[in-house]
Amino acid sequence: MRTTEGRALLWWWGLLFACGCPAGGAVPSAPPPPQAPLAERLAALEPWVEQAMADWNVPGLALAVVCRDEVLWLRGFGERRLGSGEPVGPRTVFAIASNTKPFTATALGLLVADGTLDWDDRVAERLPGFMLHDPAVAAELRLRDLLCHRAGYATFAGDLIWIGSRFDGAEALRRAAGVEPAWGVRYRYGYSNLMFLAAGAVLEQAAGRPWAEVLGERLLEPLGMTRTTASVSALAGMDDVAVPYMEVEGALREIPYLPMDNMAPAGGLNSCAEDLGRWLRLQLGEGTVDGRAIVPAEAIVETWAPHTTIPLGPASRSMIPERHLLSYGLGWAVWDYRGRMVISHEGGLPGMFSSVAFVPEVDVGVAVLINAEESLARAVVLQVLDTALDAPPRDWSVALREWERELEQQAAAAGEPEEDVQPPAPPSLPDSGYAGAYENALLGRAEVVEEAEGLRLRLTEHGGLDGTLAPSSGDVFACCWSDPVFGESEVEFDVEEGRTVRLRFQVRPEFIDPLVYEFERTE
What we know:
The protein is of the alpha+beta class. It has two domains: 401 residues, DD-peptidase/beta-lactamase superfamily (Beta-lactamase), CATH 3.40.710; 91 residues, Beta Barrel (Lipocalin), CATH 2.40.128.600. The strands form five sheets. Strands 2-1-14-13-12-11-10-9 form an eight-stranded antiparallel sheet, with helices on both faces. An eight-stranded antiparallel barrel has the order 15-16-17-18-19-20-21-22. A two-stranded antiparallel sheet has the order 3-6. Strand 21 and strand 22 form a beta hairpin. Helix 4 crosses helix 13. The longest helix has 19 residues.
């Protein structure tokens, strides 16, 4: 946290940029050589950004860099839609996905400051009917537990309930009660979108108004974030909107925006670099922008406070060797970098990725938006932070590409089949034996139907979970889902006395949901 004494020490140590932003490094024994203003050094990164976009095959990128209460770099690169000639600019709208979470936490902080809520309120007392798999945990869970990913769920567990489904938020939260926890409450970190949905429900109950209205009145409108929307449906009437892209069979493919209304408090906002520059100014100003107090400082600072430790495994340590500690506050990730505390968040949805980070100690923040599913946004954030902190030169685009390539090679080597793999067995039943209706308490109804070209599996409540089944081995089939976002799944049937009794599958456990969903046969 910043204090008057801390600022005085920074000044005394001579750690000031020519633009007025403090730099990193030890106390010099002699006056340092003249430093170009930070704005000039940032502008010099433009060729690097353009080359990095080409290397990562990213169509468009927008960014904002803030120093104290001033926007130093506000820029767009590339195209909103490939081949259109329509440039990305500072006001081009992208989905920001989980960068919505800090907005939800800050809005709750406003209600705490008002005296309407307390961070340690029991969720069940604020949200009548709130249930979890374990009633004792549901009775004990506090508001801050929802916001710092320590409710006991594995990362992304239960997300298939809402992603691409026809369930509204209330129904998704009701079904979430059936998700089994992976460990005890407050025992360890597990990133949970469903718990942020519950946090949004608490906000609505306490404020007596929809989540989007509270955010609009208390945050977006006072900040002048006029291009930020809380629903994909609002994008239809807007100009200057980026198109999402994902790589399919080695080529970029345009895909639609994922509707997020049923999970809006966890990831429903769409925004632009210009608006996120205002958001960064609010954070660096500890709730004050242009001399106006919009959020009490204590609410801002509480969201930054580390709550849940996130283990740094070998892969994380190798990605950013300069990072030693990682934790999660209330809607923000909190970590160290080159001796400074960084507050950040990332957001990823099909075809979109965003990264927001700021260093309160040196009053620098950066927001990056891209219309692709790539880690380039991370590279840009680190390149900007290194520039602001006057760190030794390093090409973060090259470094992260090499890091991801190494992880892919390791995963491929680990997944190589043994040499004595047996040939696949034929299915134990004819196609008609697998056809039928199946039911899962979380996802609803699944139907396996016979078609001219073979079997098809479809979930009636998930439009994208509809795919063909190709025999793999025995009673295991390969399912290619119609929506490329869901990729492919292995579907296994249990056969008893010559009849299927259940089926099970996972959907992209590394990105969508780690749970194995089991469906019992009903017809």
